[in-house]
Give the backbone structure.
Amino acid sequence: MKKLSHLLPPFAVTLLSAAILSACGAKDNGETVNTGDQPAPVSESITSAEPEAAKSSGRADAPELTDQYAKWRKQQIANVDYSISVALDDKNESFSGTVIADTKLAKALEQPLTIDFTGGRVESVAVDGKEVPFQYNDYFISIAPEHLKTGDNQIRITYSHPYSTDGSGLHRFQDPEDGNVYLYTHFEPYKANRFFPHFDQPDLKARYTVDVKAPADWQVVTTAREEKIEDTDDGYRHWHFPQTKKFSSYIFPLHAGPYKVWEDDADGIPLRLMARQTLAADVKPQDWFTFTQQSFEFFQDYFDIEYPFEKYDQVIVPDFTIGAMENVAAVTFNEGYVSRGDKTQAERQRLANVIAHEMAHMWFGDLVTMDWWNGLWLKESFATYMAYLALAENSEFDDVWENFYLRTKQWAYDSDELVTTHPIELPVANTAEAFSNFDGITYGKGGSVLRQLPFYLGKEEFRQGVRNYLKEHAYGNATLADFMGSLGDAAGKNLNQWTKAWLYQPGVNTIKAQFQCENNQITGLTITQTAPEDFPILRDQTIQLGIYRLEESSMVRVESLPVTYSGATTQVSNAVGLPCPQILNPNDEDWAYVKVTLDEQSVNQLSQHINAIESPFTRLMLWQNLFDSVLAAKMPLQEWIDFALANAEEEQNINVIRAISSHLQAAKAYLYRFDMPQEDRDDQLQQIEEYVWAQLNSAPAGSDEQKTWFDSFTEVAFSQEALNHAEKLLDGSLSIDGLEIDQDKRWQLIVLMNRYLHGNYAQLAEQELKQDNTDRARNSAISAKAIRPMAEAKRQWLDNILNNRDQFKLSQVKAAAGSLFPAEQLPLFEEFSDQVFTAITAVNSEADTLFNKAFVIALPIQCNPAAVDRYGQALADNPLLMPTLDKALRNRKQQTERCTAMSQLATSDN
């Protein structure tokens, strides 16, 4: 599974002073422990608790599945396979089905057996052909022990269930353009039971035999290719699929609808790509197939295991709540990966990355699967790392690790600095908690730590360990202990201490390199390591020292030296005799997950020669850290703006430009949040706006740089002159050489004009909807309406979010919430803050994780002590929040505290 990059903080900012490796900010959201000699408790596949509580008291009447009950149920069920028969159509709001669960019980039951099934209707339950009484509480079906026997039981359940509209279960989408209906499944972590009744836990793997009745013009897709299609008398078709191999139910796929289909192959593996008909013209299938073929070529060689699932379908689906999902042999992708214009290279690389990420899961996640949701991080982190590795070694892209640093690593640092940070590996008590851990630790930090292992163990040793692990546990389940044991055996190292330090402890360390020189050569070099006060543990890690010197007009790396540091102090004897650095970068090329404090000489040289540094990667890391110092309230924002506007124009590397562009957008938002003189604010806003407009106009025609500055312009523009430019770009009376104002860019401009009530803003939105009636356009129109700085607009869309959400799809709720209170409209938020904070209790009571997360988008980051107190009071008033809502509110409180410190620094500087 992968989240959409543009739904994540694009440059998730942590707090650090001028240091070369730390964290970067979200766009406008914006004592040493003695580890001892005991091995890490990595053998616990669920938690240390035994399932005795489940045995003695049975299952609680609650929507989630607990780890204890899942473990108990696993002990009862020796084997299970499913036959699923469903009837689908394009007219009704629900579907019906029958499931036969061939269940082998290991022992006689002492309490009812429960079968997960949320929100449906159960028509009948039969065991071995005989109907039996059952209980159903809207969460699970219970069958009394006397109706089941040790050994084989055939459990047959006839049921119906509403189609979903929130992107989970079996989701139904009706295309507003042509009326066609499309269905797809999304189940992770615990939504497969919204499609069919079964034992919905990852360690109860099963084989699936499927048949589907569907409209005659529909394509039906699951893990296997169909073996027979029959026409029926009522104008439908009946699809029959052969039995699959064993895998967990959360990655079971069923997609159906009149999808457009493209076909290709990857060295004999049949490939299909699908999208709805009205989107098909914008899909570039050759990109998808090329990236898919390159990924297959890499992974089959790297894993030394042929692709295990025979065919490979990729289905681009609407209303998807995440980026993509690794359904077995039928992967789903968010339509956000389809652009209605030419993609930048960064966007093409994001597409290649998500294709590789999901494919890596076919082996690590689908072929071999975690026992329980505490292992979610491992499969996601592994796929994150492997996707970047695949692109770095077998694709057209030559800046893969820069993008890893810019996106994944920064998200990890940001998450690890939040008050809600957690160990990479941690107990997960129930399925509701599993969802709350889809974050920058799960993906970003885990991926960063796994990237360190090949440097620490050796690249070939790491690869051999992965191969051994996959071969040993194929079609089964495995634990963290299994994985780390396999790596350690391959490398000849005991990884217990490494595992305990890295995977069971949160927080990020900081290193500093100090050196002495004589006669222009190093005579001594020491690396010191420190830990945050809250998480005081020191770690071992391999870094690369980069030694830079000024040669003519360029700052060039003259030497590089791999070093493994350990403990508080590491003497680097191999550095003696190397050239004396003018700049010493202790984490050159970003091998390590660590912050770096530069020595004073390096800081001075960097500030003087930022544009002379030959390495774009080093420049990227520097720019990243300069803005980090702002977020850490170590550098006034105004000082950073002056530095950026004076130095950024010479930059030509697109990744550095992307970082600077994003930081300028964040700077604009912070200026509005700060308590500062209006004259000073307006002056700096104007400088940013004029700079971005100038860069947009001077960028090479049709370049990625030009597209990047256009996106930035639609965020920082605010003056009448800039809004006039936007209006003219929209109506065609103004053009910029090489810049195509495609349909998506048109909506960006319309949202901007609605944001400032410029021109015929409302009429433009309605007119655009008439010529672009796509669901993407409808979401953009909602954003345009919700973002208007008018009390009636805020009141209407708050009411829709809180009281009328059943009339809107989740994607529409998120579009409104994300546009309600941009930074310049915080005074307007004050009119509605009581309503918003009072609503927290009601939002929580609905126990809807996806809605919780959508609601929190509307809560703004502010920059004053009163706002900090308000978030604190909201948490105090609601001590029993769902995990996702509690986490989000605590993060908002901390982000508001940080912003308050930044504002106070800016004020004192003036």
